[in-house]
């Protein structure tokens, strides 16, 4: 007779066996939760100031608990907190500008109004720690993608991909405007923008509202270099060598995002990569950067990429395997080694063209911090053969046939 542990195990198994179906609910429910999520993210942008001021107030309270003679040893402590408060308010101004009018950002989705804000649109409710952490990461993402300070990082992450696109589709040997490149999980859009800037037809895809609001702001509403300022490191209270490191500004954008060639074909599409991209044989190149580990099951991503690439098309990938769902309760997470991923890719029928298994790369690094993470990333290029020997399952899954609720080109993008 099975004991209760067995029963739990088998019901869990069932749940995850149908994980694609598990996340589906009725279209009405899905639309409702999508709208709620949209408003929660906007609320998080507005709650930022209160949240971070509370953190600084805590630092002040703790300081004031110190004996007088200790406080006197630290004459710069309170002035630094005042600087932090100034920086928080400046960050809030930028965040406010980012979410200004973003209700009209999506072409094919109406988000109505937040029931909480009905009486007073200026009202802000406390946001979750999870959302505030996402917002702080988004602020750091501006450094990676749109500042001079992020150039070194972009050179390690984006440049290898861009160089290979130019090698495989040389501008002097083909009409690059006819080469269709897709960048799934595009973040704030710099990689996709750089590819479009070189004349390729390029589409970025992203599903996080934090990223979508922010990329929409830079790509569509910024048109002058280095005119905006963020203070991305103020949330870091540990590992600062100098107090002023915490409050140093970063200006952006380091390029004019409107400086794409006249006839360029650049778009950003919102939605889940697997749900949006179901049409087969469309793309000449799929470029993934720090993306494949965002999957519940990376094999789903491989399958989608195989399906959407034209025969003869290439998939290039650079990044680590820091599985996003690994530590999330009730979320399916298949953590594969690179060795296993590579074997699966080859079994699909992809042909390996290039492999570098040790590419040092950073992600939103604070270059003055006493703690830094260095990823030993893999970089590979595989090709879907012109004559396909199909080993993988190419049948579109039910879950991939549904349109994403917030799929759509974002405002004013060149398409
Ligand atoms: C680690 S970030 C990398 C962003 C960007 N490629 C870069 O290198 O800066 C992964 C991005 O993928 C996005 N993402 C995760 N799952 C996605 C999905 N299923 N469809 C589209 N985007 C997704 C996340 O919102 C996040 O912006």
Automatic annotation (TrEMBL):
Enzymatic class: transferase
Subcellular location, record wording: Cytoplasm, Cytosol; Nucleus
Renumbered residue ranges of the record's region Disordered: 391-415
Gene3D superfamilies: Vaccinia Virus protein VP39
Comp. bias regions, Polar residues: 406-415
Gene Ontology CC annotation, any one: cytosol
Keywords on record: Cytoplasm, Methyltransferase, Nucleus, S-adenosyl-L-methionine, Transferase
Primary role: N-methyltransferase that catalyzes the formation of anserine (beta-alanyl-N(Pi)-methyl-L-histidine) from carnosine. Anserine, a methylated derivative of carnosine (beta-alanyl-L-histidine), is an abundant constituent of vertebrate skeletal muscles. Also methylates other L-histidine-containing di- and tripeptides such as Gly-Gly-His, Gly-His and homocarnosine (GABA-His).
Record's protein name: Carnosine N-methyltransferase
Organism: Triplophysa tibetana
Lineage of the organism: Eukaryota, Metazoa, Chordata, Craniata, Vertebrata
């Amino acid at each position: 007779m099975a004991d209760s542990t067995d029963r739990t195990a088998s019901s869990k198994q069932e749940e995850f066996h149908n994980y694609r179906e598990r996340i589906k609910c009725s279209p009405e429910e899905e639309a409702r939760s999508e709208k709620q999520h949209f408003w929660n993210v906007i609320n998080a942008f507005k709650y930022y100031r209160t949240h971070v001021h509370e953190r600084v107030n805590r630092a002040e309270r703790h300081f004031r608990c110190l004996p007088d003679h200790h406080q006197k040893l630290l004459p710069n402590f309170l002035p630094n907190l005042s600087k932090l408060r100034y920086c928080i308010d400046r960050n809030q101004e930028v965040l406010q500008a980012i979410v200004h009018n973003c209700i009209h950002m999506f072409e094919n989705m109406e988000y109505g109004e937040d029931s909480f804000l009905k009486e007073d649109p200026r009202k802000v409710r406390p946001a979750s720690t999870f959302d505030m952490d996402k917002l702080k990461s988004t602020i750091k993402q501006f450094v990676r993608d749109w500042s001079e300070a992020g150039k070194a990082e972009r050179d390690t992450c984006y440049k290898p991909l861009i160089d290979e696109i130019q090698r495989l589709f040389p501008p002097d040997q083909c009409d690059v405007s006819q080469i269709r490149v897709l960048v799934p999980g595009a973040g704030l859009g710099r990689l996709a923008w750089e590819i479009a800037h070189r004349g390729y037809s390029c589409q970025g895809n992203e599903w996080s509202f934090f990223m979508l609001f922010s990329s929409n702001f830079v790509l569509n509403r910024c048109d002058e270099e280095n005119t905006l300022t963020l203070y991305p490191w103020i949330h870091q209270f540990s590992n600062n060598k100098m107090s002023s490191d915490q409050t140093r500004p970063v200006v952006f954008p380091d390029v004019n995002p409107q400086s794409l060639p006249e006839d360029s074909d650049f778009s950003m599409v919102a939605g889940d990569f697997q749900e949006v991209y179901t049409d087969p044989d469309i793309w000449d190149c799929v470029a993934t950067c720090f993306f494949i580990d965002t999957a519940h099951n990376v094999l789903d991503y491989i399958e989608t990429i195989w399906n959407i690439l034209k025969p003869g098309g290439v998939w290039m990938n650079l990044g680590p395997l820091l599985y996003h769902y690994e530590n999330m309760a009730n979320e399916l997470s298949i953590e594969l080694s690179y060795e296993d991923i590579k074997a699966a890719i080859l079994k699909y029928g992809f042909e390996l063209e290039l492999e570098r298994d040790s590419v040092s790369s950073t992600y939103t690094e604070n270059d003055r911090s006493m703690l830094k993470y260095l990823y030993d990333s893999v970089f590979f290029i595989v090709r879907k053969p012109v004559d396909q020997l199909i080993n993988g399952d190419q049948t579109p899954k039910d879950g991939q046939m549904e349109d994403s609720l917030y799929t759509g080109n974002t405002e004013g993008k060149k398409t």
